[in-house]
Design goal:
heterodimer, A: 327 residues, alpha/beta, Rossmann fold, 5-stranded parallel beta sheet, two-stranded antiparallel sheet, B: 324 residues, 7-stranded mixed beta sheet, 5-stranded mixed beta sheet, globular, binds thiamine diphosphate, binds magnesium ion
Chain lengths: 327, 324
């Protein structure tokens, strides 16, 4: 039932290793200019994406965020095609048109990363509600950050999911900050309190522990699938890198070195590795390293899009914006 | 204020002056305090004016906008920063249905001295939601003033005028030009709603605003080498529009080309072309042409140069206008 590649601890470690190494490679590509415009690195939060996706079935869905590479990879997207997407190549998940903040793969239930904070939540509710109305118990996990807790649209989505008993798992990745603003200075009440106010059961888990996330997400997913309505999971986590690759330039001091070090000492990848035989870890690391080399080759070999195709998919009916002209 | 300032610094200085001059002026926005804004326009202001005048708000554009309206109702002069163009849409209802209409709805009894600063347009390697030119939505809404500076002097003075204005002003900052430097003079020279002829000419009039003024000036420079004298008008105010300045220019040159980054389709250029044709019909030698973005979502960073109007596209339009 659950995603086969995340079925056991080794598979979950592999997915986390893939996300970590992918993100490190993406950082290099931003620095070298292969990725134009930068990314929001997911490094440090891998246990959340993998733990939640481990509780999902292949035809369950998810909505993602600006910091979305981890969710997309955890659900099973091809790293080569995601990398090609980030580099704006035609073999990217969205033919190079979306880029880092707009990756989607509908064939895998990945209903889209999103450049607008909070905007994915009602989409998740609609997708989940549709499945429920069709009598097909497909769950949709909606990822968002602590910053999204203050967007009106998220509160509307919580309410709609509650009244319609939509099978949604709301996943708040509380990494302590919305860009530079600490959650403590931004969130009145609490994350779980918001969900509970709408009658949605909520739980806080250690987002650095992939097994804890999986267990809690699993309970909520099963309840939603059985018709019990939405659940809300707050995962306490931390991003190890900058909010965005551009941040490097600013030399900001909104987090202390001690705070960053304390969280890095709880690296979710290290603890997942520690639970496995070291030979297993070494074999996985080598295999993922090779996979990423191939992914990079694949992305680099892919062509850049022809600008004249920009109007190709504007209308499902095949209409062009101006008849007789390309665009 | 002698010396060369970047547009970013000129804006920062304008905010500083406005905070100094009027204790009722307050700044609100995401990451504008400690960070000084993602484009550093509010750099250092929270340190100097305190966090109750330069407020880091939660991520809640609709809430920020609505709160600013409430503050204005009770005598404050809020200046809201929207982090990137595409993030204003969550606040759209508050702007078009509330902010724009409050003064008329109250028969003039309440004023809405709210300034909404938005870095807009492309050219910095960002993607959709971060590169949009949405001026037409706001210009289409009666009750809002929409302005955009193209240089450091105007950035400084137009922002101060916008903040001092009792009307709600959508202040569109040309983000790709933030680092361009220029002289900031000792006084504004023009009212906020006036256009300015930035380069006189006789053969055709290029009309632009914000980031495209520079492109038009470069195009006029290049055309000069071919013996063509192009006039460039910086619109500055997108709503209301200073039609007298434009008409006077078009009646002299007989040809007009409007240039903007926003899609041509139903963009500001459509209104300008229609209105100016009506008013200058017997003086025109050619239809008023438009150069702008394509009617497609803003493209990924790698290919945005293909999307944005450039010198060649402007000069092609000049050729077409002169060929009539
Ligand atoms: C509606 C909207 N407003 C502002 C932004 C700019 N922005 C992008 S990410 C971000 C912070 C988000 O914080 P959080 O939700 O906690 O996610 P995190 O970045 O910590 O993963 C902001 C302010 C945006 N993308 N969308
Ligand atoms: Mg956060």
């Amino acid at each position: 039932m659950s995603l086969p590649h995340l079925a056991d601890p080794a598979g979950r470690y592999r997915a986390m290793r893939l996300i970590r190494s992918f993100e490190e490679l993406a950082l290099e590509w931003v620095r070298s200019g292969l990725i134009v415009g930068g990314t929001h690195p997911y490094i440090g939060q891998e246990a959340v994406a993998v733990g939640v996706c481990a509780a999902l079935a292949p035809d369950d869905g998810l909505t993602s965020t600006h910091r979305g590479h981890g969710h997309v990879l955890a659900k099973g997207a091809d790293p080569g095609r995601l990398l090609a997407e980030l580099a704006g190549r035609v073999d990217g998940l969205n033919r190079g048109r979306g880029g880092s903040m707009h990756a989607a793969d509908f064939s895998l239930g990945i209903l889209g990363a999103n450049g607008i904070v909070g905007a994915g939540a009602p989409i998740a509710v609609g997708a989940a509600w549709a499945a429920q109305r069709q009598g097909r118990p497909r769950v949709v996990a909606s990822f968002f950050g602590d910053g999204a807790l203050n967007q009106g649209v998220l509160l509307e989505a919580l309410n709609l999911a509650s009244i319609w008993r939509a099978p949604v798992l709301f996943v708040c990745e509380n990494n302590g900050y919305a860009t530079t603003l600490p959650a403590g200075a931004a969130v009145g009440g609490s994350a779980c309190g918001r969900a509970e106010a709408f009658g949605i059961p909520a739980e806080t888990v250690d987002g650095m522990d992939v097994e804890a996330v999986r267990a809690a997400a699993g309970r909520m997913v099963e309840r939603a699938r059985a018709g019990g309505g939405p659940g809300f999971l707050e995962c306490l986590t931390y991003r190890f890198e900058a909010h965005h690759t551009m941040e490097r330039r600013f030399r900001l001091a909104y987090r202390t070195a001690q705070e960053v070090a304390a969280w890095r000492a709880r690296d979710p990848l290290a603890s997942a590795a520690a639970a496995l035989p070291s030979a297993t870890v070494a074999a996985i690391d080598a295999e993922v390293g090779q996979l990423l080399l191939e992914s990079a080759e694949f992305a680099l070999a892919s062509a850049e899009p022809d600008p004249l195709t920009a109007g190709d998919h504007l209308y499902a009916s095949g209409l062009r914006p101006r008849s007789g002209a390309a665009l | 204020m002698a010396g060369q300032l970047s547009i970013a610094k000129a804006l920062n200085g304008a905010l500083r002056k406005s905070l100094e001059n009027d204790p009722k002026t307050v700044l609100m926005g995401e990451d504008i305090g400690k960070l000084g804004g993602v484009f550093r326009i509010t750099d250092g202001l929270q340190k100097d004016f305190g966090d109750d005048r330069v407020m880091d708000t939660p991520l809640a554009e609709s809430g920020i906008m609505g709160t600013a309206i409430g503050l204005a109702l009770r005598g404050y002069r809020p200046v809201v920063e929207i982090q990137f163009d595409g993030f204003v849409y969550p606040a759209f209802d508050q702007i078009v249905s509330q902010l724009a209409k409050m003064h008329a709805r109250a028969l003039g009894h309440v004023k809405m001295p709210v300034t909404v600063r938005i870095p807009f347009g492309g050219g910095i390697g960002a993607v959709e939601h971060h590169s949009e030119s949405h001026e037409a939505y706001f210009a289409h809404t009666a009750g809002l003033r929409v302005v955009s500076p193209s240089n450091a002097h105007d950035a400084h003075w137009m922002l101060r005028q916008a903040i001092e204005s009792d009307d709600p002003v959508i202040f569109l900052e040309p983000k790709r030009r933030y680092w361009d430097k220029g002289e900031v003079g000792e006084d504004p020279m023009l009212p906020l709603h006036s256009a300015r002829i930035v380069r006189p000419g006789t053969d055709a009039t290029l009309i632009a605003y914000g980031p495209m003024v520079k492109v038009c000036q470069e195009a006029a420079q290049a055309a000069e080498e071919d013996g063509r004298h192009l006039e460039v008008v910086d619109l500055r105010s997108l709503s209301p529009i200073d039609f007298p300045t434009l008409e006077e220019s078009l009646k002299r040159t007989g040809r007009g080309i409007v240039v903007h980054e926003a899609p041509v389709f139903l963009g500001l250029g459509a209104e300008l072309a229609a209105r100016l044709t009506e008013r200058c019909f017997y003086h025109l030698e050619a239809p008023i042409l438009r150069v702008g973005g394509y009617h497609a979502p803003y493209p990924p960073s790698r290919v945005e140069e293909t999307y944005l109007p450039d010198l060649d596209r402007v000069l092609d339009a000049v050729d077409r206008a002169l060929a009539y």
